[in-house]
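Practice problem: NAD(P)/FAD-dependent oxidoreductase
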Amino acid sequence: MDDVVVVGGGAAGLNAALVLGRARRSVVVVDSGEPRNAPAEGVHGFLSRDGVPPGELLGVGRDEVARYGGRFVSGRVARVERVEPAREADPEFRVELDGGEVLRSRRVVVATGLRDELPDVPGLREGWGRYVLHCPYCHGFEVADGPLGVLGTHERSPHQALLVREWSSDLVYFAVRPLADGEREALAARGVRVVDGPVSAVSADGVETAAEGLVARRAVFVAPEFRPRDGVLDALGCERDDAGLVRVDAWGATSVPGVYAAGNVVDPMAQVVSSAAAGAKAAVGLHAGLVFGLK
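Answer key — structure tokens:
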């Protein structure tokens, strides 16, 4: 039986495994090999790693985890079960993979991230991470001062547009969803042009609209629905907060003793660097629990 199984091999999961390996704990990382940011050209805002391709960052991380004895298993986790009877301070978990392989551990870290659910507009998925973007802090600098757009399909789209305006004075807001009272005025006050009505497609050339035809844009920002991949946590009975996200304490501990979670699975707004930090913190909390008999 291993000390820890980490479910998910992104920034949060790998950093948790790295810290635990350095604490001389036996760690297994289960990863499906489908990182959320794979389409992006580079990771940004990560000190000393700014601009590195996502796959390269993960490759370096895997090498570092392996250096401290961490092991990797490719696949998806079908379920995690707490083995009974077990003392609350010393639980045991059975981690079953889709292929039938079973791992056993004293603790579990879930870092399975989220999926971005995009509006049903042709071209969005094809351009995701290239000319279709969602985070100005992650990608705004690379398209700064160019003709940009914000696809107004979500209640937080006007807020997104006011942020994106900091990167370009040539910004068009495509009001697919009607603007609420005061939103149009707020956009106008910042010099954001509004195009009302349906959008039929988005491409590298721009946005195809009913009102004006093709509006040429270098890049278009969109607000996806964030869908945490938290089925494993839900099946374990982890409590949720008022926003519907799995609740964790300051150290990443869920309400289920022995189960920790970090990164986008519990914090949809976390960037790569903050997900990595959350993984490290969860590892420290988990390790202290093993030492002192806490959850």
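Discussion: Helices lie at 11-22, 54-67, 124-127, 136-139, 157-164, 183-189, 231-236, 272-292. Students who identified this feature from the tokens alone can consider the problem solved.
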